[in-house]
Amino acid sequence: MANQSKQSPPSHNTTFGPKANWFAAGLRMPNGHAPLYGLYGPGAVSEASRVMVASSRNYADFASEATFEVKKCDLHRLEEGPSTTAVMTRDEGLQYYKTMQTIRRMELKSDQLYKQKIIRGFCHLYDGQEACCVGIEAAIKPTDHLITAYRAHGFTYTRGVPVREILAELTGRKGGCAKGKGGSMHMYTKNFYGGNGIVGAQVPLGAGIALACKYFGRNEICLALYGDGAANQGQIFETYNMAALWKLPCIFVCENNRYGMGTSVERAAASTDYYKRGDYIPGLRVDGMDVLCVREAVKFAAEHCRSGKGPIVMELQTYRYHGHSMSDPGISYRTREEIQEVRSKSDPITMLKDRMVNNNLASVEELKEIDVAVRKEIEEAAQFATTDPEPPLEELGHHIYYNEPPFEVRGPNQWIRYKSVN
Amino acid sequence: GVAQVTVRDALNQALDEELERDERVFLLGEEVAQYDGAYKISRGLWKKYGDKRVIDTPISEMGFAGIAVGAAMAGLRPVCEFMTFNFSMQAIDQVINSAAKTCYMSAGAIPVPIVFRGPNGASAGVAAQHSQCFAAWYGHCPGLKVVSPWSAEDAKGLLKSAIRDDNPVVMLENELLYGVAFELSEQAQSKDFVVPIGKAKIERPGTHITLVAHSRPVGHCIEAASVLAKEGVECEVINLRTIRPMDIETVEASVVKTNHLVTVEGGWPQFGVGAEICARIMEGPAFNYLDAPAVRCTGADVPMPYAKILEDNCTPQVKDIIFAVKKTLNI
C-alpha cells in the first residue's frame, strides 16, 4: 500500500484528490476512544468527502494518517505545554502497535518463564506501561541517551536490544545482551545505560550523561527515569539542583504507576504532584497510558532541553498490571477490581488499536496478523533463551576491568583461580 | 636536575598535565575551582582551564559523585574530589554500585573511567568523624582500583596513571603529607611520567625484617628503619603504593629473604590492609620462610579522639613500629 505524502490535519471540508483522506475528515475524536463510524463504506462522514469517494475507494485503501486529540498536560512553571493534538501516520501507528505488543508479550513470556523457574532472582515487569517507553522513543533520536531503574525490559527493547537477547539475559545464558553477567536489572546497549538496581541512583547518573552531552556539544539530551517510589530519594533533589544550576539537557521522567512496591503514593508522599517536585524546574504531568500524549509531551520536553533552557521534569501517569516484581502478587495493596478497571478502560495497546481501526489506519485483521507475528517472534526468542548454553565457567572472572592485561581473580578458595580478560 | 616538590604541587602538576593532555578530563568537587581547592591541590587550574573543565559543586556528595560516574559512562574522564574520604560515605553507593560494578555487569560494554580522589585517614585534631581510613573499605571491592601514595613521585605518577586508566580508581591521599617536600627526579618531572598501578616499591632494601606500609606510615617505617640500623637491624621497607590490586609478590619475595614481617597502616586493625597481607602471606610460598608470626601495627581500635595525647597514641608511631620489629625479631 503506497505511502502517501503527509497532508496537513484534515478538517471537515477539505479532503480532495484521488486518494482523499476522507475517513480522516472530521475526525476530532475525544481522547481517541469512541468510534464515530465503521471502517469502510460510503455511509460515513460529510457531504464533501462523499462526493470524491466513489472514484478512488478500494478495499485496501487505508488513510495515511489521522489527527487525534490528546489529554492536556498539567503544567508547572510553563506558559505553554505540548500540543493537544497529535498526528499519527499509519506507519507510525503500526510501528507503535507492534512495539507495544512485542513488549507486552515479552513480559508475559517472562512471567511464564519465571514461574517455571527458568528465570531467577528479581524480575520486574512492565506490562501496562508500554505507552511510556514507546512514546518516549518515538519522540527522541537514537543518538539521545536514556537511563532507567530496574523495570527496564521495555526500554531495553525500544533502545535496540532484540527480544531474544533480552530473554536470554533473563535466563542467564551466554547469548544474553550482558552475556549472562547482568540479569534482569542490568541490560545495556548504545546510549542506554541500564537497568539500575539501586532505587534513585540512576538519576544522578542520568544528569551526568546530560553533562557529557552538553560538554561534547552534540545537541544530544538524556532522559533519566525513575518511579513514584524513587521520587522521594534525596539524591534526586541534589540532582535537580545541579541540573538546574548548570542547565543540563536532562529530562527527568517520573513513571508514576501509583505504587512504590506495596506502598501507594498517598502513603509515601506528602505531595503526589511529582511533576512539581523539581520546584524551580518546569514540569509536565502526562497521560502515560496514551502513547501519543507521551510522544507529544516528550517532543515538547526535548525541545526545551535542546534549546538550552536546562532540565525539565515530566510525570507520566501510568499503571503496572503485575505486582512490583514476580515475588509480589500485587493484590495485597490494591484490588483486583482496580487492575481490571485499568485494563478495560485505559490499556495503552487497546487504545491505540481502537484509534487505528476507527480511523481507518489499519484493519482488525491486519492488527491480528501483527499479533500472530509477534507471538511467533516471542516464541522463537524464548526457544533461544531456554536452549542457549549458560556462560562458560571460564568467563566468571572476565570484565572486572576494561582495557587491562589479563590477570587472575580468586575463587572460593586460594586454589581456585579464574582468568580475567576484557 | 632533581627538584624538591611538595606532594601538593606534585598533585597539582599531575592534574594540570592531564587536563592539558586530554580534553575529556575534568575536575569536579567542592571548592575545587574558585577557592583553588580546600587543600589548594587544584590551585590555579580554574583560572587556566575555566568553568567547563574545573567545576565547583554544591555540598551534594551523592549527587555529584553520581553525576561524575554518569559523565564517565558517557565518555568523559572525570576526576571527582571528595573533600575528605569521610564524606565519600554519603556517596559510596555511587562509587561501588554504579562505578565499580558496571563494567562487569555490562560484560565490558560500559567502562567507567573515573578517578575519586581526596585526603584519607587521620589528620591532626580533626576528631572522629573526620579521621577515618577507607583503604580497607574500598580495597574490598572488585572492579575498583585503589591507590595510596606516599611521596611526591607516588602522588604525581599514580594520579596520572589513575586518570589515564579506563577503570574507576580511588586515590587515597593524606592531608598531612600535602605540605611535605620530596625529591622528584628529572624523569619524574616529565609530563609522561607515570607510576604503574599495582606495583609496590622497595623504598629501602634490608635483610633482617620486612616492613610493609602505605601512605604516611611509609615515612614512619623509614624513620624506624634508620633508628634500628644504628642497632644493627636492617629493615626492608616496602611502599605498597597500590592497595588494590595488591602487589603481594613483592612482599612475598621480601619475606622469603628476611623471614620476618611487620605491616603498618593508619586504619583500624580489624579487617584491614595488614590483615589482608597476613592472610595472603599464609596462603603463599612465603609462609614457610617466616621465622615468627607476621605482626600488624595499626590505628587503635577506637574512634579518633581529639586531645593531642590521645590522638598521638591512636596512630602507629615510630616507637610502636620499632617495638613491633624487636618483638618479632625477639630482641
Automatic annotation (TrEMBL), chain A:
Keywords: Carbohydrate metabolism, Glucose metabolism, Magnesium, Metal-binding, Mitochondrion, Oxidoreductase, Phosphoprotein, Pyruvate, Thiamine pyrophosphate, Transit peptide. This is Pyruvate dehydrogenase E1 component subunit alpha. GO terms for molecular function: metal ion binding; pyruvate dehydrogenase (acetyl-transferring) activity. It comes from Columba livia. It comes from the Eukaryota. Its EC number is 1.2.4.1. Pfam families: E1_dh. It is found in: Mitochondrion matrix. It catalyses: N(6)-[(R)-lipoyl]-L-lysyl-[protein] + pyruvate + H(+) = N(6)-[(R)-S(8)-acetyldihydrolipoyl]-L-lysyl-[protein] + CO2. NCBIfam families: PDH_E1_alph_y. The pyruvate dehydrogenase complex catalyzes the overall conversion of pyruvate to acetyl-CoA and CO(2), and thereby links the glycolytic pathway to the tricarboxylic cycle. Its cofactor is Mg(2+); thiamine diphosphate. GO terms for cellular component: mitochondrial matrix. Residues 99-393 form the Dehydrogenase E1 component domain. The keyword Transit peptide applies. GO terms for biological process: glucose metabolic process; pyruvate decarboxylation to acetyl-CoA.
TrEMBL record, chain B:
Keywords: Carbohydrate metabolism, Glucose metabolism, Metal-binding, Mitochondrion, Oxidoreductase, Potassium, Pyruvate, Thiamine pyrophosphate, Transit peptide. Residues 5-180 form the Transketolase-like pyrimidine-binding domain. It is found in: Mitochondrion. Its cofactor is thiamine diphosphate. SUPFAM superfamilies: Thiamin diphosphate-binding fold (THDP-binding) (SSF52518), TK C-terminal domain-like (SSF52922). It catalyses: N(6)-[(R)-lipoyl]-L-lysyl-[protein] + pyruvate + H(+) = N(6)-[(R)-S(8)-acetyldihydrolipoyl]-L-lysyl-[protein] + CO2. One of its GO terms (cellular component) is pyruvate dehydrogenase complex. One of its GO terms (molecular function) is pyruvate dehydrogenase (acetyl-transferring) activity. One of its GO terms (biological process) is glucose metabolic process. The keyword Mitochondrion applies. It is an enzyme of class 1 (oxidoreductase). PANTHER family: DEHYDROGENASE RELATED, PYRUVATE DEHYDROGENASE E1 COMPONENT SUBUNIT BETA, MITOCHONDRIAL. The pyruvate dehydrogenase complex catalyzes the overall conversion of pyruvate to acetyl-CoA and CO(2), and thereby links the glycolytic pathway to the tricarboxylic cycle. This is Pyruvate dehydrogenase E1 component subunit beta. It comes from Columba livia (Rock dove). The gene is PDHB.
